[in-house]
Amino acid sequence: MPVEDLSINLATIREQCGFAEAVDVCLKHGITSIAPWRDQLAAVGLKEAVSIVKSNGLHLTGVCRGGFFPAGTRAEQENALDDNRRAIDEAAALGADCLVLVVGGLPKGSHDLGEAHRMVADGIAAVLPHARQANMPLAIEPLHPMYAADRACVNTLGHALDICERLGDGVGVAIDVYHVWWDPDLANQIARAGRMKAILAHHICDWLVPTADMLTDRGMMGDGVIDLPAIRRLIVNAGFNGRQEVEIFSAGNWWKRPADEVVATCVERFRSRC
Questions:
Q1: Would you list the DSSP string of the chain?
Q2: What digits encode the pLDDT tens for the residues 68-123?
């Protein structure tokens, strides 16, 4: 597959590179699509990041991340909404395809999952007018259920699509294989997302067996158990032909290797395993 169909989420080489250096490594391998994180943008400054993106003709498949809406106090909720509006503006300045939302889990001390779900839907609804005005789609990323308490209480593609249906235009989904590959209803929900024209991003990596750490032990494509080509076929059949975005958190392996080696391996595995 052509490298033009590949994007590198810069979390994949976050321990080795700052934003500008990561861009240089990607360009060396012919990759002109990236997805940066907001802390990486903040480190270089948004103005400089925009300059780097424009001068190199880069395409941003997303910006990570907004979200984390549930909160224990009204002040914390308002701070979260303000931060999400800033994230929308940053993504818009960079011309990104979407702002990825990791929606947040239970507020500290809470046992009320239903209330967290409500806070998520209400939070997205509150920032949606700003996103629409900025022409910045919001991509809800359902996370694996192991993250329900602390990172994201939206854990299935079906749940994310329910929120999209409720809120209407301007909200879609980011389908990350690491988080949804296990779902027995995945094929039906991807088809549903296609009918809704809700697929905004497709993230890839692999699920290792055993997994040593819930957050930072993702695998390179082909090193685990996910049927990546099968999921890609479902997504393409649903009408999404956008780039596949490699996003690997790997404290024990890939973050310890030279960035050039990591990106070269991403390209090879994309062509041979995806």
A1: --GGGEEEEGGGGTTT--HHHHHHHHHHTT--EEE-BHHHHHHH-HHHHHHHHHHTT-EES-EEEEE----SSHHHHHHHHHHHHHHHHHHHHTT-S-EEEE-B-PPTT---HHHHHHHHHHHHHHHHHHHHHTT--EEE----GGGTTTTBS--SHHHHHHHHHHH-TTEEEEEEHHHHTT-TTHHHHHHHHHHHT-EEEEEE-B--SS-S-TTTBPBPTTSSS--HHHHHHHHHHTT----EEE---BTTTGGGS-HHHHHHHHHHHHHHH-
A2: 999 999 999 999 999 999 999 999 999 999 999 999 999 999 999 999 999 999 99
